[in-house]
Amino acid sequence: MKPLAFRMRPQVIDEVIGQQHLVGPGKIIRRMVTAKMLSSMILYGPPGTGKTSIANAIAGSTKYALRTLNAATDSKKELEAVAAEAKMSGTVILLLDEIHRLTKPKQDFLLPHLENGRIILIGATTENPYIAINPAIRSRTQIFEVKPLSESDIKTAIQRALRDPERGLGKLKIKLDPAAEQLLTQATHGDLRSVLNALELAAKSTPPDKENQEIHLTLAVIEECIQHKALVQDKDGDAHYDVISAFQKSIRGSDTDAALHYLARLLAAGDLVSVFRRLLTIAYEDIGLANPTAAAHTVAAITAAEKIGLPEARIPLAAAVIELCLSPKSNAAITAIDAALKDIKQGTYGEIPAHLKDAHYQGAQKLGHGIDYKYPHDFNHDWIAQQYLPDKLQNKSYFQPKGNSRFEENLKERYQRLKTAQKQQLPPHA
């Protein structure tokens, strides 16, 4: 009676779907498993993307015992039982779900067992571990991001579940229409658990035909079981991504009616997640410094939409789309940061000037750190000319403002005035 998603969890590392940046040949978790040199880790990412599956596969591949607890609901007593088992029988892998909710008493009990290696902790969380998890735990673990599964990953998992006669649905004679399979791969945003649960519900609630005893899973059947309407029915299966792409490009191109059309398609499919992500990206990537208030309005519209849900969510989202379409545009921010990142990736960054280095520790002065730093607030206009960029980047100008609105024109003038003052060692208001 266990659900399909549970039964299809990988038993060894080779069965893990997706996450090749962690479990692929030569990657970090596969190296740990191959060498049997496991270290405690935190896996973070969206629901249904394989955090528990990876823990299960690690245990199956290494033959270590796997115990599963929840940091929010299981008590210290359960942790003590795992520790006692590890002391008696050797290394135990502890999958600790919702690790961001681990209390300090439980943490204090757990830390010594992580130190001596008796317990290999695999913490699972949907929260950002750098914000939500205590530094004491973070410092004793490696942190790995688990990413949403790709469309091809989902298809692989579906076909595996349909073929497997022991753990999957292989004993049933199932015909899954291509359009229905496409909806499964697209509508759940990489959440494999939702995909497999919907597939099992569809298979077990659809009567077989009398002639061939075949269970025919059509698009309509899958739509009903997944409670998600198809965006467009096309044989290529690219419609979902085409609509999202057309949505952003229409806003970027200031075509209000086209943008509203594609918003309507996404809302009809119930795909609020894609709408939210695109609008936030557009607000900063395509409008940016030409109209910073548009970004604030977009965040407010998304917050309202999340709180009220569909169908009312369409109202604030439409307002945001119209404002973004009619707003002046500028991509100066994204081009500036991309130019800076390009230098970093190419190894062009140089030594931080000594006067900017941290001077808040004993011995910093002996190293010459922070000695000649000039505190801008001690000077007229709260500004003083001094070097900030490394020597090899002294003349770099990443920011290329376009001046497509009065606000951005003011930024452009001030940026150029400050750059000139910095080069000439003169006050910017001189």
Biggest β-sheet: strands ordered side by side in the sheet: 2-3-4-1-5
Helix-strand sequence: HHHEHEHEHEHHEHEHHEHHHHHHHH
Give the mean pLDDT.
87
Helix and strand content put the structural class at: alpha/beta
CATH class assignment of the largest domain: Alpha Beta
How much strand content do the residues show? Answer: 5-15%
CATH homology superfamily name of the largest domain: P-loop containing nucleotide triphosphate hydrolases
Low-confidence stretches: 231-237
Molecular shape: flat
- What's the CATH topology label of the largest domain? Rossmann fold
Helix coverage percent of residues?
40-55%
Question: What is the C-alpha radius of gyration, as a whole number of Å?
Answer: 27 Å
**Second-tier CATH architecture of the largest domain:** 3-Layer(aba) Sandwich
Number of strands: 7
Structural domain tally: 4
Separation of the first and last Cα atoms = 79 Å
Largest sheet: 5 strands, parallel
How many helices?
19
Pfam family, one: AAA_assoc_2
Keywords: ATP-binding, Nucleotide-binding
GO biological process, one term: DNA-templated DNA replication
Family: Belongs to the AAA ATPase family. RarA/MGS1/WRNIP1 subfamily.
Essential attributes:
430 residues, Helicase, Ruva Protein, domain 3, 4 domains, 5-stranded parallel β-sheet, two-stranded parallel sheet, 19 helices, 7 strands, nucleotide-binding, ATP binding
